[in-house]
Amino acid sequence: MENTTKNKIRKRRDITVYVVLRAFVIFTLIMQIIHGNFENVFFCVLTLALLVLPIIIDHKLNIKLPTLLESIIFIFIFAAEILGEVYNFYGYVKNWDTILHTINGFLCAAIGFSLVDILNQSSIIKDKLSPVFVALVAFCVSMTIGVLWEFIEFGMDSFTKTDMQKDTVIPLVSSVSLNEENKNKAVILKNIEKTEIYSIDNDGNEVVTTIDYGYLDTGLIDTMEDLFVNFVGAVVFSVLGLLYIKNRDKYKFAENFMPTKKTPEEIEASKKAIEEFKNKKNRRKMKSEDNPEQ
């Protein structure tokens, strides 16, 4: 009874997080439409769609997301798309992108781990996988997702001319391309004071852009930093998952980050909850039609 009460309280908190974030996204969407920032309108619409994903996973795929994990996913989506892209936290808040990629690595490892662990405990797998192997698979899932995301960033920057791979000003160059003798020996330029870029605008005028204290690295360093912190997050949960398999009672808190397959009773309860929600909605609609003046 006590656990049921705690679960209800946690679920209410989860719903509150979802409702508050969704309301803020809708408010931001309206403001961006008013100001004509249609690129930001796209991010708002994308966020609204992504916020529904955990709910779809829960009700359509019959996978139970722990309330803490679900809340973190909601906040992560909001932090990445609305705060990061629309309100430019990537530019204003130092290491904002790094923090998000670290969390992403941790969460993706948790999801990968839980999926393999579910299979490992089912009757489908005759020979049970070792804890080390399960942890390794979780790590590989997380890193694969991290790499695929970097492909998306590179593709967006290449084809739509965005800057998802944030550029970095670098004060040093080490390159064999600068070797005048064409030898495979890097020429090192230290303490670069400035770089000048000459370009032509749409009217045919020459434009000189000056970058102080270095040259502009177009995404490589950002990509490698993102993959490294993703690696850190993946390693942290893979180790935690390994400890969890060996002693599930001692490291039970790891379950707060791990999706699980719903039991038949939980599936039936979800169906009843959805049916009750639909019935309430229909009753409100009928009441509204019967009393149009209200």
Write a brief caption for the model:
With 294 residues, this protein is mainly alpha-helical.
Structural overview:
This protein is mainly α and 294 residues long. The chain is 65% helix and 10% strand. It has three domains: 1-93, no CATH class; 96-166 and 218-262, no CATH class; 168-217, no CATH class. It has helices spanning 2-35, 38-60, 67-86, 89-92, 96-121, 131-159, 220-246, 264-290; strands at 63-64, 168-170, 173-175, 187-189, 194-200, 206-212, 215-217, 260-261. It has a two-stranded antiparallel ribbon. α2 runs antiparallel to α3 (67-86), α3 (67-86) runs antiparallel to α5 and α6 packs antiparallel against α7 (220-246). It is flat, with a radius of gyration of 25 Å.
Q: How many DSSP E strands? A: 8
If you average the pLDDT, what whole number results?
86
Mind summarizing the main beta sheet? 2 strands, antiparallel
Using the CA coordinates, give the radius of gyration: 25 Å
Oligomer: single chain
Brief descriptors of the model:
294 residues; mainly alpha; two-stranded antiparallel sheet; two-stranded antiparallel ribbon; 8 helices; 65% helix; 10% strand
Ordered list of secondary-structure elements with their pairings:
Layout: H1 2-35, H2 38-60, E1 63-64, H3 67-86, H4 89-92, H5 96-121, H6 131-159, E2 168-170, E3 173-175, E4 187-189, E5 194-200, E6 206-212, E7 215-217, H7 220-246, E8 260-261, H8 264-290
Antiparallel strand pairs: 1-8, 2-7, 3-4, 5-6
Helix pairs in contact: 1-2, 1-3, 2-3, 3-5, 5-6, 5-7, 6-7
